[in-house]
Amino acid sequence: MRNTGRTRQTIFMLVVGALVVALSLFCAEMAVRYLVAYDADGACRLTILNKTLYLKPFRSPVNAVNGMLEKYRSGRSYLMYDSTLGWVQRPGSTSENGLYHANRDGVRAGSSEEGMPARSNRLRVVLLGDSYTHGDEVPFEQTWGAYLEKKLTEAGIPAEIVNLGAPGYGMDQAYLRWKTSGAAFHPDLVIFGFQPENVKRNLNILRMFYHRPSRMPLSKPRFVLDGRHLEAINIPTVSPDELFDLYAHIERWENRRYEYYYRTADYEEHIWLKSKLVAVVMALIGQWSAEGKDPAFYAIENEPSQLALAILRELQSDVERQGAAFLVAAFIPKWNFQYVSAARPLPYQDLLEAVKQRHDTVETAQQLYAQVKEGDLNELFAGEHYSAKANGIVAGVIAEAIKERQSTKLPSRGR
Fold first, then answer.
1. pTM exceeding 0.85
2. Is 233 exposed, middle or buried (0-12, 13-18, 19+ CB in 10 A)?
3. Could you report the per-residue pLDDT of 68-114, keeping only the tens digit for each?
4. Crossing angle of helices 349-358/303-321, nearest 10°?
5. What is the β-pairing status of strands 189-194 and 325-330?
6. How many angstroms separate the CA atoms of 174 and 180, rounded?
7. Which of 48, 77, 165, 279 sits 20 to 30 Å CA-CA off 406?
8. CA distance 289 to 161
9. Are β-strands 123-128 and 189-194 bridged in parallel, bridged antiparallel, or unpaired?
10. Which residues contact 302 (CB under 8 A, 6 or more apart)?
């Protein structure tokens, strides 16, 4: 009888425990369902503490893209479709928020009414790169390009900066921008803004699969390596009129195999994903797992780094054939400063060392971090990009490097 009583008590405790667990899971499931949000395509996301998790199964952003494309069709957007580059600044345009202007030549400038001045004896410098070079989130006067022009002139090197950086560009697009329009400015010096996250963009064609919050629906070109040769994919890029159908029938797209960030399995329905709690746990595991894979992703022998080095090699070769000098300015994004502050190697340290071995390179990370008071990184950033203060520091470092190289006489077309 005593054993029977103990058995009943054990069973009772197990049942109570199971009910508590089940009730807890049910409450957690209800809480998650209350907190998640859905977009026009039924894609589900959860935002907590300014961090957003995108839950599987993913949805192709068909309806979202259709709405975004309208501004590109209107002819009034700051960026416009380009059959080679994917997108580029519209000549004589201003962004919706009034912060960015492209002059009549499609160059970032202080006014959309400006044009490039006639060639003079000033040092003409073309800047290539992404949003860090373009100067996102600050007005033109606070970009590092504008500061560089001022600092060089003050140092007795009259200079003229041509900023061809563009939001969202990969290294491939920056290289092609040089080919399509940069060389026509006949610069004395070309500075490539190397922001290592762009290495990931080199494997991407449709930005909304790589960066889900993106408002850029247009496709981009990409390269694949055929030995040492760069083979172009998705040129001409998909036109705005064809994009809606592409997103709606992504499985039929001939270039889908080159889109590194699209995986069919991520879009498949599974019974366990009916639980939003399970979907959140899977998203968290996926996020933690992805963060730990960066060193392997950037490993020098793997495709991402080899492709990046090949693009830089071809860019420098072409720049020098045109009679200009080539300089790489290495930037560090906000989320990587934790490595600098802890004196730990960056996830892409080997790639950065390879770039420095192959190209004349200026690093800016240590100078930026040295200027931070009490470890407050917010002084260096205007949102996700460099602040006016950071851009001033970057410009100072690059100006000093150019002054040092003046002793070797940078080529000058205007003198």
1. yes
2. middle
3. 888 888 788 999 999 999 999 999 999 999 999 999 999 999 998 87
4. 20
5. parallel
6. 10
7. 165
8. 42
9. parallel
10. 296
